[in-house]
Amino acid sequence: MRTVISNLLAIYRRELQSYFASPLAYVIAAVFWLLGGFFLVVILFSPQGLIAQVAERDQVQQMGFSPPPLDVAYEFLQAYLGVLGSLSMFVLPILSMGLYAEERKQGTLELLATSPVTNWVVALGKLLAVVTFYVAMILPLMLCEAIALGAAEPAVAPTLLLAGHLGLILLAASVLSLGMFLSSLTSSTVLAAIMTFALVIFLWIVDALAQAVPGWLGSSLTHLSLLQHFTGFTQGVLDSSSVVLFVSYSLLGIFLTAQSIETLRFQRT
Question: What is the DSSP code string of 53-107?
């Protein structure tokens, strides 16, 4: 067990260092931060934003009417987490595209496949590293959220914050894990990114079908839809079945990746 953990940490550190040393990763992070900041301003300060809605309600109240209550902090957090989830769907294929495709391109995948380190350990170490980099990407935006929510009265419930951001990370881990498997199938990082983006499109289609199809089929699609479960997290619903689903998708990606590398090892022997 000690050897397994040591190998896992070695893979994790190597992969994480490669992300923090990559200029492309910083470009991706900068674009993500720029768009995240832009949409934060839009949600709060645009003519149809929450601040304008609050001002309009104040005017209605001064006229003697009683508008329905508006939880500004809740509405902001739900909308902003939804935006971050959508932005992440465009960024995650780029983060996962080189996990194995780059190893194939550089010719180091064969060495990795025939090394004493198990495929599961390699896949798990790579996944943990890219998820860690993703968490580092969303930290500055979480700081902006904290500043925006700092003036909320009453304060936002900690469970809402915890559930929303946990859902965001679990969603990212699921997509990155499946993207890692697709990356293991090709030596082209561009092709790996395209295949993962196609997977993201498929997830959106499944989500739309789940809402449009009635009966048991719609219910089944809803249960399998990552986006539906993520929406529940943004609403503060910390559902154990959703956590199990996200973890299952992540494990599926690791399993498929390990099998893919095992197939390569078999071909080489």
Answer: HHHHHHHHHHTT--PPP--HHHHHHHHHHHHHHHHHHHHHHHHHTHHHHHHHHHT
Neighbouring CB atoms inside 10 A of 217's CB total: 11
Q: Could you say which DSSP state residue 264 is in?
A: H
- Residue for token pair 């495709």: 101
Cα separation, 134 vs 137, whole angstroms: 5
Contact call for residues 52 and 70 (beta carbons, < 8 A): no
Handedness of CA 130, 135, 139, 145 (dihedral sign): positive
Which residues fall within 8 angstroms of residue 78, CB to CB, at 6 or more apart?
A: 164, 234, 235
Q: Tens of pLDDT along the chain (269 residues)?
A: 777 788 889 889 988 998 888 888 899 999 999 999 999 999 988 888 888 888 887 787 777 777 777 788 888 888 999 999 989 988 999 998 888 888 777 777 777 767 777 888 889 999 999 999 999 999 999 888 888 887 777 777 788 888 889 999 999 999 999 999 999 888 888 999 999 999 888 888 877 777 777 777 777 777 777 888 888 888 877 788 889 989 999 999 999 999 988 887 776 66
The rounded distance, in Å, linking the Cα atoms of 16 and 13 is 5
Counting Cβ atoms within 10 Å, is residue 192 exposed (0-12), middle (13-18) or buried (19+)? buried
Q: How far apart are CA 120 and CA 18, in angstroms?
A: 20
Nearest alpha carbon to residue 187 among 104, 81, 245 = 104
> What dihedral do alpha carbons 102, 255, 176, 103 form, nearest 10°?
-10
Burial of 201 (0-12, 13-18, 19+ CB in 10 A): exposed
The distance between the two most distant Cα atoms of the chain, rounded to a whole number of Å, is 82
User: Which DSSP state fits 65?
Assistant: -
